[in-house]
Write a structure and sequence with these properties.
There is one protein chain. With about 120 residues, this protein is of the alpha+beta class. It is about 20% helix and about 20% strand. It has three helices and seven strands. The strands form three sheets. A three-stranded antiparallel β-sheet has the order 1-2-3, covered by helices on one side. Strands 4-5 form a two-stranded antiparallel ribbon. It has a two-stranded antiparallel ribbon with strand order 6-7. The protein is elongated and about 75 Å long. It starts with 11 loop residues before the first helix and ends with a helix.
């Protein structure tokens, strides 16, 4: 027989406090994702910053697609500023639009697909 008395399991909060990952008496810190980067080019590509779209959460909790200079409407048409950007209810739809647009983001007459082919030639 085991002479140890049973005690209830620790909660995750108690474990985190015991490890010093949470402060007793204070609520957990909120972390909210407010921006996603969408690009055809890989992270280590020197041209990625130019050919990246952003899916951003607005103050109203909606999601828009932009390139840092202008926004995209629901059909994928670009206009300067963010006021024209279509607001999506959830980020999945906004990311779907950004994924569809990403290969055709154009800088100085070159698309992201052109930049990828130039810097990542096929063998």
């Amino acid at each position: 027989m085991n002479d140890q008395t049973a005690r209830p399991a620790m909660t995750m909060r108690e474990i985190r406090e015991g490890l010093g990952h949470a402060t007793p008496g204070l609520p957990d810190v909120d972390v909210i994702v407010t921006r996603y980067e969408v690009s055809l080019l890989p992270l280590n590509d020197v041209n990625r910053k130019y050919f990246t779209l952003y899916v951003e959460r607005t103050r109203r909790g909606m999601w828009i697609v932009n390139d840092g200079h202008g926004g995209y409407d629901i059909d994928g048409d670009w206009a300067p500023g963010l006021a024209v950007a279509h607001e999506f209810n959830d980020y999945d739809d906004a990311i779907a639009l950004a994924r569809r647009l990403a290969p055709n983001v154009t800088i100085n007459g070159h698309t992201a697909a052109d930049a990828y082919r130039r810097t990542h030639p096929t063998t």
